[in-house]
Amino acid sequence: MGISSHANLFFVLLMLCSYVLDVGIATESITSSQSIKDLETLSSKDGNFTFGFFTPPNSSDRYVGIWWKPQSTVVWVANRNQSLNDSSGVVTFSEDGNLVVLNGQNHVIWSTSVPNISTNTSAQLSDGGKLELTETTTGNSLWDSFQQPSNTLLPQMKVSSNRTGRGVGLTSWKSPSDPSVGSFSVGAVERGKIVEVFIWNETRPYWRSGPWSGGIFTGVDLMASAYLNSFTVVDGEVIYNPESVSEFGIFVLNSQGRVEQKYWDDTKQELEVSWTNKISDCDVYGVCGSFAICNSHGSAICSCLKGFEPNNKEEWDAQNWTSGCFRSTSLQCERAKDQNTTIDTNEDQFLELQKVKIPDFSEWSSAEPETCRSQCLKNCSCVAYSHDDGIGCMFWNDNLLDIQQLSNRGLYLYVRVDPSELEHAMKRDKKGFLYFKNDEPLEQRDNKVFEELSRVKLQELLLFDFEKLATATDNFHQSNKLGQGGFGPVYMLLCRDFSSAGTGFSPHGSPLYATLLTLPTLQLSGFYTTELGNEEMELLEERKTLPDRDLLQNRDYSQTQTTDITFISWK
């Protein structure tokens, strides 16, 4: 009994020591006449990576793999689907020159499986953590571990599509204690000129990055961070290529389908998670179904696009959104087709969605923005389009699936709707708040301002909360003028029935907006809008010299000339 207890204790200590991975005989390379036994290791020249035997936490099984030595972080596993149950395993070369893992019965449980190679081979571990099988005489690479990754993306690794018939991607562990292949995988998908990264749960899409635009993945909201900006895409292959190789940064696909970006914190002396792909339920692929948008900041995260209604109202109210939405008002082009009549296709309009992860299954063309729009408009099957300088023209002829509202990134999506849907939007009662500051004299302005209006985007304006402004200024009291003592005071204009002066939700296209920009020393600085029960819009105007009242009241602010402008001073 005593001997048995000591033997068991020795085996436990052996397992612990081998997981710490700091013991054993280390070498930089092995040749066809050499082997690596349990507790022996192969190390990179800089000592940061080690290849050998290890045991995962809460397990007694033995595996062969590569780990990053400073924190014993396993980054690659050879025999992940066929473990060893004791310490009798060995890494060696087979008669045909392949690197193999043998169990105690000399059965091959893993092999590099390269056909028709020289028997004169060797293996070495690079400073980047890549195990490489080479032909000793020529030095030619025959196989490397980056071609068969596990769950970790190291610098210089890539994920690729199956376009060439040989896709490369990550696969999750089954659990933190079981490195066998789990349910989740990461890979690249290339459709025409559009490249995206996907996570799949078995065969079902679980998450996607949005299209690559030449610098970022447009559906990843925090793509501006240092490591996330370290990707390049070449011929459908997504390559992790960080600028600084001195800082250890990796991407790990965990057993729950979450990709985590980790970096080494020198101060804490540990790996820190700096980013993850799944922050909210909106990050799950298609959670809202078709023709719906997901916004994690909403009380209910899913809502149908304007002009669409839930397919199943009962499920929708129960917050089961997967059935999606359907078009509630048929398109002009559809009605013309049904009636076999000719109709101006321009009667259909496009609803603009800003800063979104655009839907899946887009088609691509090289068309410029205006051509992209007109091509979609001429094709009644085209339900939406988007354009990005780094991608080109994208359009959709089927369901719009997996649209997500983003905060910092994203693209503009234009959804085809019946004109009445935009008319309803224009008639919604609004209260607006425009914030102006002093600028150049009127004589320095010219007709260019009108040409530039169509290129002005709403996100260029500062957004203000009306209630917060009212509180900060003591309800716009005379003693609390905004900008007083700086670039001049702020004044307000009251515009009743603003709905006739604007188009859609943006003031930029309205004649009122264009006219205001031509007023002396006037420049738009911000806009605020919120729903009210009456028809009016308040404009904040900041200037050193007030405009003449006649100048304001005599301007033609709308095509219908129904807008009533009244000047309102501070109290």
UniProtKB/TrEMBL annotation:
The keyword Glycoprotein applies. It comes from the Eukaryota. Residues 1-22 form the signal peptide. GO terms for biological process: recognition of pollen. Residues 27-146 form the Bulb-type lectin domain. Keywords: Disulfide bond, Glycoprotein, Signal. Gene3D superfamilies: Bulb-type lectin domain, Phosphorylase Kinase, domain 1. It holds the Pfam family B_lectin. InterPro entries: Bulb-type_lectin_dom (IPR001480), Bulb-type_lectin_dom_sf (IPR036426), Pan_app (IPR003609), S_locus_glycoprot_dom (IPR000858). Residues 333-418 form the Apple domain. PANTHER family: BULB-TYPE LECTIN DOMAIN-CONTAINING PROTEIN (PTHR32444:SF198). This is Bulb-type lectin domain-containing protein. The gene is Vigan.04G168200.
